[in-house]
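We give the chain.
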Amino acid sequence: MSLIAVAVTGRGLCEPDEPVIRADDDAVLRGRAAFETLRVYAGRPFRLGAHLDRLETSASYIELPTVPRAEIEELAALVLPHASGYDAVLRLVWTGGTTDGHATGLALLSPIPSWIDEARSRGVHGVSLLGVRATAPWLLPGVKSTSYAVNIAAEAEAKRRGADEAIFVDADGIVLEGTVTNVWWRRHRTLFTPSLDLGILAGVTRAALLELAPALGYSVEEGAYSIGALLGAEEAFTSSSVREVLPWVELDGRKVERGPAADELQDALRELAART
């Protein structure tokens, strides 16, 4: 990920290649940190407040030092002018802290990955992989932490199998979520998506789609659904802040038809971002 701009608590703007994290920070030693990634549209972050809310919640679950929300907002304000007029990725990080209790906040601004629009145009190939339903508190349900090794390994396995991305399915065959996305599918005029009760991430873009769907003529059902229900869908897609809405054309080697919902929701999401 190439960086456009970096800001750090207590230091302000820093050079992108300047070291900013101490070697004894828990973020480095144990992957103990919380983060948020959001899309910036024409220089404006989409639903920054909702992402900050989730950052605070994640930090609380991991028992990190209290997030200094105003300082993190100031960091975002420092880097955002570097994306004036175009789209970018804003990543906010709050670390676990050092042995003397010094935690660090970061705001990182980077370009939108170039492959996303191409993948949206051609459609995505997915594969289901075994995942764990995070229902116990120590499994950190709904937490967005930097302990991402499992997610990265799952994406690598998906690519080894000739797919673009992976979704997690538990041992009972219940669909959970993608490695960095929420999962959706359609039958007739109803959209289905796994419930937050399954311990999945409460995606900010997921929430936006829940708001947008009724105006497009779709009802939405949330619940615990088997992989069979997904494989039998009329269309399927994923949502995330940076990737937005990505339609599938294949899952587990089975063809998935492209349908209208993904494109309609993608357009509606862009329209919502433009007016907020």
